[in-house]
Amino acid sequence: MSDTKKVVLAYSGGLDTSVILKWLQDEHGCEVVTFTADLGQGEEVEPARAKAQSLGIKEIYIDDLREEFVRDFVFPMFRANTIYEGEYLLGTSIARPLISKRLIEIANETGADTISHGATGKGNDQVRFELGAYALRPDIKVIAPWREWDLNSRQKLLAYAEKHGIPVEMKKGKASPYSMDANLLHISYEGGILEDPWNEPEEDMWRWSVSPENAPEQATYVELTYQQGDIVAIDGVAHSPAEVLAKLNAIGGANGIGRLDIVENRYVGMKARGCYETPGGTIMMRAHRAIESLTLDREVAHLKDELMPRYASLIYNGYWWSPERKMLQAMIDQSQLNVNGQVNVKLYKGNVTVVGRKSDTDSLFDEAIATFEDDEGAYNQKDAEGFIKLNALRLRIAAKKLK
Prior knowledge:
Blueprint: E1 6-10, H1 15-28, E2 31-38, H2 47-54, E3 60-64, H3 66-78, H4 96-110, E4 114-116, H5 125-136, E5 141-143, H6 154-163, E6 179-182, E7 187-190, E8 220-227, E9 230-234, E10 237-238, H7 241-254, E11 259-265, E12 271-277, H8 279-295, H9 298-316, H10 323-335, E13 341-348, E14 351-358, H11 367-370, H12 383-401
Parallel strand pairs: 1-2, 1-4, 2-3, 4-5
Antiparallel strand pairs: 6-7, 7-12, 8-9, 8-13, 9-10, 11-12, 13-14
């Protein structure tokens, strides 16, 4: 028995966290509060309440966090055009700081001294949950069962559940061989045949998107309206942040958008192969860069691109609540004040193509200067000669030295 008195458990109602709930009660002798988050994972979360009640839990939190997730986490991240290691749109990573935040809030509300989660000792999520928790409440205690117990297989978990009378709902049909995590931004797949990075994913693995080969023969056009770097309307119809992402997921998935198969470098030191579906996020990324191409100053845009990999690593590694991420976010948000306008994208068989962009109020594109036709004196082409010679001066000096 530990000195833990009350623990808030991040609880899905599935096998792992149901076993953890009972294990916490038996091994640590503590009162357990459950917290289940609806982040748009597409599965009913309310059954977790009955499951927790059946295990004797009196304080049960089930929170719809979809709007907060997209508004306060996904949208700020996309303002930076954030990609980890050139490909990954951070769908799992960006959900963890919100879960940590809510765990700490519930701990404070209920007088709990400890939090617990079901992340394994091999993955990134344990780092993300706990770094976030410590940043928000330095004195919080953490119980991570996968780092303590010996229930390290599904068979052992099932045996423990049977021994302790924990109800386990067996899903009808063929069980998925993959470890999956979903929210409004993406769904991830790991394990099974994916553990060999040479194996091509099976077509029936993908849940959110049709294959590009089977996508419609007719292209789909979507117009996105931006205000200060965030999408506020689709095809002229206003939507909330969560509605924007859900709608783009549906449109993108129907056109085979957003599939990804990568080997990534985990923060804990190992390489891992994962597959991801991020249809709405893929559209958002392409469109956001398009509206910025019109409205951002060149040096501001280039500075953002230079800082983005650092910002991406902070999110991937669990430092959302760090002072350096907050500092970068303030700079990024400042850059977005004039990122307003419309982007027209064409979706066709897995591809997102920007076919138009405009900003009536904040465009820095001047057709009178950029034209190949007569610019009527808007730009003096003779000025380029001095510009070139000044920039070539060091090159000419160096070249003379080499003679």
